[in-house]
Amino acid sequence: MVTIRDIAREANVSIATVSHVLNGTREVALTTRTTVLDVMEKRAYQPSALGRNLRRRSSHMIGVIVSDITSPFFSAVSKAAEETARQRGYYTMVCNTNEDVAQERQYLGVLSQQLVDGFIISPCVGNHEHLVRLAADRKPVVVFNRAVAVETPTLVMDNEGVAYDLTMRLVGAGFQRIWVMAGLREASTTQLRVEGHQRALRAAGIAYDPGRVLYTARTFESGYAAGRVALATEPCDAFLTFNTPIAEGVLHALTQTEHAGRPALAGFDIPSWASLLALPYICNAASPVSEFGTKAVTVLLDWIEKGVTPPQRTEQLSVRITSSDTRANSAHA
User: What CATH number matches the domain at 56-152+289-317, 3.40.50.2300, 3.30.559.10, 3.30.70.260, 3.30.200.20?
Assistant: First the structure.
């Protein structure tokens, strides 16, 4: 393995001169610099990134930690984060925790040892003391999607308000027997969305039936199973789904189940192909996935590069809701 000492010997310069050429820490005469670079190319010398990071205390890497990378939501956020970081000369390292808080702690520890410059994280359900410690150590951390009790910049949607709006639109369109296909019961996003649904039913004078709220894993299989249960239990006017995989499972259940009339569908990030099933009414809340990734990286890198801690506040990003009513053969936003 070629070392910096080998390069210095062959170029007939000091090790310090080679280091200055590599790191730009001091001006080196053009002829000397050219000689060093020629030798490095000839010997295929690759400087140690870890060693350089240790000296600079920077890696131009940021960790992006999500709970389920297979989710279209997190995939899109990660893509937007990567593109924004690259435009500013940084790279992302994406880690998938599988909704396991122990894995989340491990990834934070490993990435910290690799000297990543900061973190963007959608926290798992569970204890978040490790995030509290990280923020207390003044490590740049931006939280998104799920708010937690940590003093650090946080980006969320108005989950309660959007769920309220989706439910009210269903009721306004004439659908009252609404089954909610929720995610993890313990997740703050799920809890807020259920609260919004309950508030809408109260406002509409409709009794809330907790039996019509099914908590599931955030997967296609769970959505399919929950959808089959709802369709087999009683007449079902409509579904309210909390993420794309669950909605896809429910839609598949609709195609596999005999049912008197097609129910309406409202939810967060309903797949575009839902319109092919000729449902009477569809209402979609499109999560601001690109804005989550772009804004999280922007806040984080401004923090890193300027060295000024941003306001420790929670910011709500806007959500666009659209609906289509095939019964009236019209569409409106």
Answer: 3.40.50.2300
Do domains 4-47 and 159-287 share one topology? The answer is no
Helix (H, G, I), strand (E, B) or coil at 253: helix
Q: CB neighbours (10 Å) of residue 292?
A: 26
The predicted pLDDT at position 54 comes to: 47
Say whether 162 sits in a helix, a strand or coil: helix
Which two structure tokens, joined as six digits, stand for 69? 């990378």
Q: Which CATH architecture has domain 159-287?
A: 3-Layer(aba) Sandwich (3.40)
Burial class of residue 145 (count of CB atoms within 10 Å of its CB; 0-12, 13-18, 19+): buried
Cβ-based neighbour number of residue 218 at 10 Å:
22
Could you tell me if 123 and 94 are in contact, meaning their C-beta atoms sit under 8 angstroms apart? Answer: no
Pull the structure tokens for residue 126.
């569970």
Spatial strand order of the sheet with 118-121 comes to 91-96, 61-66, 118-121, 141-144, 154-157, 314-317
Domain ranges of the chain: 4-47, 56-152+289-317, 159-287
pLDDT tens figures, 91-121: 999 999 999 999 999 999 888 877 789 999 9
CATH superfamily entry for domain 4-47: lambda repressor-like DNA-binding domains (1.10.260.40)
Residue for token pair 């240790």 = 54
Q: Which amino acid is at 111?
A: L
Question: Which residues, in sequence order, are CB contacts of 138 under 8 Å at separation 6+?
Answer: 309
Selection from 70, 188, 66, 177 nearest residue 126 by Cα:
188
Task: Kindly report, residue by residue over 10-29, the tens digit of the pLDDT.
Answer: 999 998 898 887 766 678 88
